[in-house]
Each structure stands twice: as C-alpha cells, then as structure tokens.
Amino acid sequence: MDVGTTSYRPPELMFGNQWYNTSLDMWATGCVVAQVVSLGSQTLFDSGDLGSDLALIKSIFSTLGTPDLEKWPVTKSLPDWGKMAFVQYPSKAWTELLPNASLDAIELVQSLIVYESGDRMKADEVGLIISD
Fold first, then answer.
1. What is the DSSP string of 5-46?
2. N or C of the chain: less Cβ packing under 10 Å?
C-alpha cells in the first residue's frame, strides 16, 4: 500500500521502506512549507502527470543532488535501493530553489527536507521555531 501524497512523499518510500513514523510527515511538511514560502502553486518536487515514483525520484535527485551512502546511510537497508543506476545530479542551492523565501524559512525547509529520515527536524522542534 502506498503511503503519502505523490509530490510530498519522501524518497525512502520509493525504495521499499515500510517502517513508517512521523519523519514521513516532516518531509511532507517541508514540501508544503517550501510551496508556501515560494509564493507559487508549484510543488518543490514533481511526480509528473501520472504521479510516477520514477519521475518523483528524478525530481528529488535533480533538486537535492543524487545521494550516496555518506549522504543517505539508511539506503543500505532499503530493499529496493541499488536496483537501478541514477544520473549523478549536483544539489541546487536553497536560495535558488526558494528565491522569494526568507533565510529563516529556507533554514526550516532544509531541516525538514533531508534524505536521512532520522536527521529531519521533529515536530516539537518546528513548534519551537514557529512560536519564536
């Protein structure tokens, strides 16, 4: 069963992760915040007209840079990682991705949109930032 909504799905779901926790929601939150602060209707990542996992993976990798084991160590435990070779994309600067956003907003987004799910900001930490 698929979890998450197309363009807001974290990458680990496309590689067979079935261990679900709030880190999935934090990725999606980062995607929503990015969309809001960029003042546009476009999502940060694009899953194409049909909501394709491969299109979403390409969009994520071409935006954040193609990850390796150093950047995303949990991939060694994902059942579908390594079944395909991907183009090695460099990461884009957050200021380029979110040109209309404040530095605080960019900092929030980049702490939520992180390959390694355990490194994503937690909900209670986001609440502390927003209440300041």
1. -GGG--GGGGGT-----HHHHHHHHHHHHHHHHTTSSS-SS-
2. N
Q: Which residues contact residue 122 at a Cβ distance below 8 angstroms, ignoring those fewer than 6 apart?
A: 22, 26
Rounded CA separation 31/13 (Å): 15
CA 125 to chain centre: 18
- Domains of the chain (ranges; CATH) run 6-131 (1.10.510.10)
Q: How far apart are CA 91 and CA 114, in angstroms?
A: 12
Q: What is the per-residue pLDDT across 31-84, written as a single tens digit (0 to 9) for each?
A: 999 999 987 778 999 988 888 889 999 999 999 999 998 999 999 999 899 888
* Whole-number Å distance between alpha carbons of 51 and 119: 26
Q: Encoding tokens for residue 112? A: 């939520």
| pTM as predicted | 0.89
> At what angle are helices 123-131 and 22-37 packed, to 10 degrees?
30
